[in-house]
Design goal:
Two copies of one chain form a homodimer. The first copy, chain A, is α+β, with helices and mostly antiparallel strands and 338 residues long. The first copy, chain A, is built from eight helices and 14 strands.
Chain lengths: 338, 338
């Protein structure tokens, strides 16, 4: 499922499968690859920084490798701390401290652990195609306030034209693929759904991530929802949380974040179930809509989602951005960082 | 302003000022402090992990220091990459690579840069009080679905009893404090507001963070909003984005995230303006409500916010959690990690 994700907030994640066996990549590119002999980063010649995420401690740069043709992307991400063997890895004499300042009971230091226990996760893409660079490049983003009129005139024609095939979704619903991964299934054609782990999920409770996919075809996104879908939505909420609690150590519904994306990454309605404490990608207010809010909005006003203004984020590099800009909705003025 | 923030998503930030000159801290504690002589982490005796944030690469542990009385908190956070001098710090022979695997153009490595250019930001609190430990301790959290009835019966009585003084807000509105920090002001008693940098903001465009505070008193949160407040909300939207664009290099409204918190950290209505690309604390869908959505909801239904079910997150350690639990709304069942 993750392989069709295009959410801007996932742009920094590396998923080799996304690009594998693309036609754009010539078979002979392999012979130029640096991967067979690379021992250190001394031969990397920096061209520019594509992205620097201070919160995730992630740096993505473009450059070349001496004696090798083609562009290269180097993606460096500081590692999370591992809770095992902390004494051996961190709390020992190798971890020298240099004091920055102290104030009352607080002391701020710089700590220098030994090299072997403070490495950096590094992904190198070489030779890198234009599409790789575009994917990782930090792009200006904008909020679009999509009125029902703008949806009809701009978004809907765009998504009808550009949307990915939904065959993989139908394969799941029809048991032609991923059948063994299904956590729960209700086959009712109107209110039924399949609950399946998202491909991003590694299986640990801390990062729990499942998707509910309705049997019913033809609901593209929350824009299409009305009071006729309340039984479906409530069934997904109730049966979904019950199935998760049963399968995953009694996890209660109140510790789940249950939400839609708007815009979604594919246009067959689906609902995300994640562990509330997990900062999953795409849970920001300009992207995620709680299932409880969606149900309540429809209960308050059956036609809510065909009348509401829905906001979402577009990158300047996306075609939807240029369509909105051509329509005069978005300012052409953009502030670039540095 | 930040000093009254209690949002769970900020619990991992260290702000020494929050605790400074507290009465709980005896003056003589200084003599037990480790800060005068600490050279490395070899004397730290780990008791338990309080928090481990894999996204921020942040580890917070409780323990003691040999030969020193009192508990200690050690907070380690991997550093963000600095874009200057990358060749000197990273792209050189010291940065040894160890290959994990390769696949087509993708290679995954472990990189071991030199010690001096790969340090960890470390904060040590010693002696640490119970309140320090409680602040950093990872707490189970739950989503409450607050109906209008639950708001009246539980949340409203709670917040009337427990809310912080709003004197500091009135001081800003009455020019008794922070007058020189005001970015924009409209003195109209009904639709006017003050726009002022949030205390968290360091002044750089990448982390832009301002607050709009209405002149009008008595609106506690979005719960209290109705159609009579539309002129106020639209004035804040229009005059606020205009003032920001004028003051900050033409930053367009479409590159701002404009939102309320629910629950807010203080109960005088206020609106957050942040740079859209900045992952500010508290922008998750279970906490942040876009101003554009709030205006649209009231336009669709004047009484929306007195009729809607509003979801928000509570920590199990909060009194509001126990009140909801005693009311039978939240399950007492909670899944602890490990």
């Amino acid at each position: 499922m993750a392989s069709v994700e295009k959410a801007s907030d996932e742009a920094t994640y590396v998923n080799p499968k996304k690009f594998k066996s693309s036609n754009e990549e010539p078979k002979e590119s392999k012979k130029y690859s640096v991967h067979e002999s690379l021992k250190d980063l001394s031969k990397f010649q920096l061209k520019r920084v594509l992205n620097n995420n201070a919160q995730k401690k992630l740096l993505c740069v473009e450059g070349t490798f001496a004696d090798h043709d083609g562009a290269a992307i180097v993606l460096l991400e500081k590692k999370a701390f591992v809770e095992e063997k902390l004494d051996e890895h961190l709390f020992n004499e190798s971890s020298k401290l240099s004091k920055e300042f102290e104030n009352d009971v607080y002391g701020n230091y710089n700590c220098f652990p030994s090299i072997e226990h403070n490495s950096i996760k590094t992904t190198i893409i070489h030779p890198a195609m234009e599409k790789h660079i575009a994917k990782f490049e930090n792009q200006p983003i904008h909020i679009v306030e999509e009125t029902p009129k703008l949806y009809e005139e701009i978004t809907l024609p765009h998504l009808k034209k550009e949307q990915f095939s939904l065959q993989w979704v139908y394969n799941i619903l029809e048991h032609k693929a991923e059948k063994e991964r299904i956590v729960f299934e209700d086959p009712d054609p109107k209110t039924g759904f399949v609950l399946i782990p998202d491909l991003k999920w590694d299986g640990s409770l801390e990062t729990l991530y499942l998707l509910a996919i309705p049997m019913l075809k033809g609901i593209k996104s929350i824009r299409d929802l009305d009071q006729s879908h309340l039984p479906l939505l409530k069934n997904i909420r109730d049966a979904g949380t019950k199935a998760i609690s049963k399968k995953y150590s009694g996890l209660p519904a109140s510790q789940l974040r249950i939400y839609f994306h708007y815009q979604p990454s594919f246009y067959h309605l689906h609902i995300h179930f994640t562990y509330l404490k997990y900062d999953a990608p795409g849970i920001f207010t300009e992207k995620a809509h709680l299932l409880s809010t969606v149900i309540n909005n429809i209960e308050l006003m059956g036609e809510y989602y065909s009348k509401a203004t829905l906001s979402f984020v577009v990158k300047e590099s996306e075609t939807l951005f240029s369509k909105y800009q051509a329509h005069g909705v978005l300012s052409s003025q953009s502030v670039e960082k540095k």
